[in-house]
């Protein structure tokens, strides 16, 4: 008997009722109940989705769902569970309706006690088990009946047909519909009818089994000789129907029928057994006492590759060859053990059957001895089946548990195991262990602009290159997202890790061709080394991660060894990262405005909005200290949206105050520009603030525009159609195609301050600035020079007829109140 605990899920919002039920079902002896209680339907649905429960006790009055709706949701998730409704005095009608929808029964919570509830629950469980067994028995009967070559005719107590199988329909030439409700004698050949009915009456009078032979006359006049066996179906002594088996003996009737009745009965018995054994899905094989094969069913013939005629009489060790799958050594034959030990024997796990042609299949089986009438062992029988698919699935699940689904690289779980092992070996062999934490630079931009399908293919391509760059003893792991970790086992010195890092950077410098796109990607790598940077897995991982962030902060596309002082920077970075969301929520950001000056007239032509962060603990934080962090974690999108809205709001406020307001420019990051709905967001902000579009200028770098230039052009056209002004920021520092630059609807070119700084003393910078001014004039674009700090620089730019200037020579970025004063009194650049 199965003494395992019955798993019960109790769904009851009343803790007192739940406790009463749990106490009632506790300590129930050899057949315990394991009760898990949840108070809400949502909790129950989660548990039912992750675990099977034999029994569900369901209160229909729950805080998040009630009545039949609650039952329907539980029934949908757990249709195979035994669902019992817990009802109060007022909802018995609802409980009955639930039974009509599939509930097995309902209990009144008012009658719950430790004596009644376990017995009642066990009764309902046993009743369901019995009903399922009955249904299975009926299904097995029908399957066996339809697989049988014997025709079967079943009639009720009045003699009317209630069932025929396929073989009977073929023998009689009558369909199921034609036989239902008719008498069994309707198909008898007219010449045999009188004799057969007389034999039938004689058998009935003596309550003897009825056996006879007669001809069926089919509707097309075809005659079929049959042998019929009939027996009464009794319920106790009460006769309630008749079952007949009909065998087609037409071929046998064409020859002399000389076999004795006993031989005929034996043949029929063997035939039925053969049909039964050949219709099941398991292989069956028998031997005699000496271990020689005496029988194989069709499935056994297929799985062993031995036809029955060739296998009979051969030693079982020749026909049924099994090996242990891992050692490849012969496994003990369970049939010989069953004979020797006179007991049922289970095969060892992980065994494979070697087919006659050499192919293999994983099997599970059990063997049992065959006894004679006097109880002596005379042979053995083994029943086995192919479990190759289920074992392969189990291996696949084990692989998936330790490997990344996208790249098939080891995951964090397997990496941790291998790191612990590598540390142990390094300690014994006096070696070091290197750990490289890799992050792909700007991978998010590719993922956002080209889609996740291209991003996934790029990750797979990168994973393959990483594996090619390391030894077979090393481990490449995908940490998650665009992060990878490489474990270098047993290195001699830290420089070995640096050499691998250089190899990785070189390998990744070659473009990836993905879906027709030539994709460039670089790595930021952090390195930690055992034992100098940590004695355990967690510490080494944390320190390599810290070093990787330092590599990113150092300009990306480089590697950095961990140093102790990096932790201080990492803590500050984490502090800033965690404070960004609070800063936006609590209004800690503010904008300063730096004027743009017309170099001919000296008047203010515009302003650039520059974000500042007034942190209550850290003081005033400049953009360079937090914008890169916001870009890395994606928080730059809401921050950028705030800057855009605040700048538009402020210009409109100046206009409303009657000030001579000028257009304001806002820097847009690549993450913002590629973010879905960017154009719509700009339009919405202009509408909400009421600002005319020509008062807003968006500044974008060359690298942003040239990445996916076609899509960039469409976004720029949409913004231009809206009336927004567009500027290229830091012009000359990136790579751009002049053909695309001509196509982009750009209003302004901003010369990067790195060129302006030395224009008076550096001929190269002077030439570049002069060329940009000329190009802007020819393209009908305004040119503004950034970083103007001296009078000499101003004179140089004025001599070259540069349109505008911006820098400390004119004004530092100032708060909105000070900039309003500048607007009132104007600013003279000369």
List the helices and strands and how they pair.
Layout: E1 6-11, H1 15-25, E2 33-38, H2 41-50, E3 55-59, E4 61-62, E5 65-66, H3 67-77, E6 82-87, H4 92-100, E7 105-108, H5 116-147, E8 151-156, E9 161-164, H6 166-172, H7 176-179, H8 190-205, E10 210-217, E11 223-235, E12 238-248, H9 250-253, H10 261-279, E13 283-288, E14 293-296, H11 298-304, H12 308-311, H13 316-319, E15 321-324, H14 334-341, E16 345-346, E17 351-354, E18 360-371, E19 377-386, H15 388-402, H16 412-429, E20 432-440, H17 443-450, H18 452-468, E21 475-480, E22 483-491, H19 494-508, E23 512-514, E24 517-519, E25 523-530, H20 537-553, E26 558-561, H21 566-586, E27 589-598, E28 604-615, E29 619-621, H22 627-633, H23 636-656, E30 664-667, H24 670-674, H25 678-689, E31 696-701, H26 702-706, H27 709-722, E32 725-731, H28 738-743, E33 748-751, H29 753-756, H30 763-778, E34 782-786, H31 791-799, E35 804-806, E36 814-815, H32 816-825
Parallel strand pairs: 1-2, 1-3, 3-6, 6-7, 25-26, 28-30, 30-31, 31-32, 32-33, 33-34, 34-35
Antiparallel strand pairs: 4-5, 8-9, 8-12, 10-11, 11-12, 13-14, 13-19, 15-17, 16-18, 17-18, 18-19, 20-22, 20-25, 21-22, 23-24, 27-28, 27-35, 27-36, 28-29
Extract low-pLDDT stretches. Answer: none
**Which CATH top level class of the largest domain fits?**
Alpha Beta
What is the arithmetic mean of pLDDT? Answer: 85
Helix content: 40-55%
User: What is the fold named in CATH at topology level of the largest domain?
Assistant: TIM Barrel
Q: What does the main sheet amount to? A: 8 strands, mixed, barrel
SS strand fraction: 25-35%
Q: Could you say which overall geometry the principal axes of the C-alpha atoms support?
A: elongated
End-to-end distance:
103 Å
Structural domains: how many: 5
CATH superfamily of the largest domain: EAL domain
For the largest beta sheet, what order do the strands appear in spatially?
A: 27-28-30-31-32-33-34-35
Instruction: Kindly provide the radius of gyration, computed on alpha-carbon positions and rounded to a whole number of angstroms.
Output: 43 Å
Number of DSSP strand runs: 36
Under the CATH scheme, the architecture of the largest domain is Alpha-Beta Barrel
Helix/strand-derived category reads alpha/beta
| Number of helical stretches of at least 4 residues | 32
